[in-house]
Design a protein that fits this description.
CATH class: Alpha Beta
Strand order of the largest sheet: 9-11-8-12-10-13-14
Distance between the termini: 28 Å
Structural class: alpha+beta
Radius of gyration: 19 Å
Number of domains: 1
Strand content: 15-25%
Low-confidence stretches: none
Order of helices and strands: HEEEEHEHEEHEHHEHEHEHEEE
Helix content: 25-40%
CATH architecture: Alpha-Beta Complex
Bound molecules: magnesium ion
Number of strands: 14
């Protein structure tokens, strides 16, 4: 008998397999314009965009954020990377008996601050308390819905001048040969910040989480136009995001190691722990596939925002490449596979 393991919750291949074998066959996965079977950042039905996330991060507070800011930003971002405008959020709390009310209030304050910053109100919620030991202090679930924006139509009209588009939304399957791959900033900060906050890892990296709602930044990029696909590289990191682009769009992707922005402290921490910064989850970054003629302008628009200051062009989609390949600093080539599981459990 198979039992669910931590790997099944880590956003990588193990989780995909569990869902495909044990969960999705029982659900109507083909309903909607972007159905559940697309396994994209959000679903779309009747032009309404919807997403949901549960948050189990350990510890609840860490450098650069807490479970509250994380839950709001993560959900706002899943709506935004579809090219949609987030309209409203829900918030459900499952609280362990014995949790300090002061901690709960601190988290509520953080939720309110992040929702205000994003300009997305919380309009409904739910509260449950379970007995000691039934959950680890607190689980938050946030859902959101969003709507189509005129900026998305204008953006896709520019893509359509270059080639056929497969979706009216910025789906993972929209990447095509020649698209330029842009990442909106440094990778690995969130995962390393969480690890540095956990006791027993024996290092104290001076890294803070990148948690940020990205709807403002994304609107600026959409206004330039030419973005075909977008995804937030959360669990499984850039490696997982690019493999989803590649598999769903049936096109190869080549990236250059020296162009990928990674902080030195993150690099050092990853070396020490033997983990790959490309596989670590991020909570304030977006990866985009942009038609070649617009890539420099989209990059400039991103760099003009506080969240996208360190955006970079890291590679491009190529018919001639199979899967995801990275040209390394020393001139070699390495296959970048989708991770089996996130190297850092419970980071979101
Ligand atoms: Mg996502």
């Amino acid at each position: 008998m198979t039992k669910v393991s931590m790997a099944h919750g880590a956003g990588g291949r193990s989780m995909q397999r569990l869902l495909r074998e044990r969960v999705l066959p029982h659900l109507l996965t083909d309903k909607g314009e972007v159905p559940l079977s697309a396994l994209d950042d959000s679903g779309v039905i009747d032009d309404i965009v919807m997403t949901t996330d549960s948050h189990t991060v350990k510890p609840l507070f860490f450098p650069g954020g807490d479970i509250g800011s994380l839950s709001v930003a993560g959900t706002v971002n899943d709506i935004s990377v579809m090219g949609a405008t987030p309209i409203a959020l829900s918030l459900a709390m499952v609280i362990e008996e014995g949790m300090e009310a002061d901690d709960l209030e601190k988290i509520a304050r953080s939720i309110g601050r992040t929702a205000n910053k994003a300009g997305v109100p919380i309009i409904t919620g739910d509260t449950k308390v379970v007995e000691r030991g039934a959950v680890d202090k607190l689980i938050l679930n946030t859902s959101a819905f969003g709507k189509r924006s005129p900026a998305l139509d204008a953006n896709l009209a520019i893509v359509a001048k270059h080639r056929t588009i497969h979706s009216r939304w910025l789906e993972d399957r929209n990447v095509a040969d020649g698209d330029v791959i842009i990442v909106s900033g440094t990778l690995g900060d969130h995962g390393v910040a969480i690890l540095s906050a956990r006791k027993g890892y024996g290092f104290d990296a001076d890294v803070v989480s990148d948690i940020a709602p990205l709807n403002g930044m994304i609107v600026r990029a959409l206004a330039v136009g030419g973005i075909a696909a977008m995804k937030d590289p959360t669990r499984g990191g850039l490696a997982n995001t690019l493999n989803e682009f590649s598999e769903k769009s049936k096109v190869g992707i080549e990236i250059e190691e020296e162009k990928i922005p990674i902080r030195q402290a993150v690099r050092s921490a990853c070396n020490l722990l033997g983990i790959d910064p490309l596989e670590i989850g991020n909570e304030g970054k977006a990866v985009m596939a942009v038609v070649p003629g617009k890539a420099d302008d989209v990059l400039a628009a991103l760099r003009a925002t506080p969240e996208g200051r360190e955006a970079a062009i890291i590679g491009k989609a190529m018919k001639s490449v199979r899967g995801v390949v990275m040209r390394t600093r020393v001139g070699g080539r390495r296959i970048v596979e989708a991770p089996i599981a996130d190297p850092v459990p419970r980071i979101c």
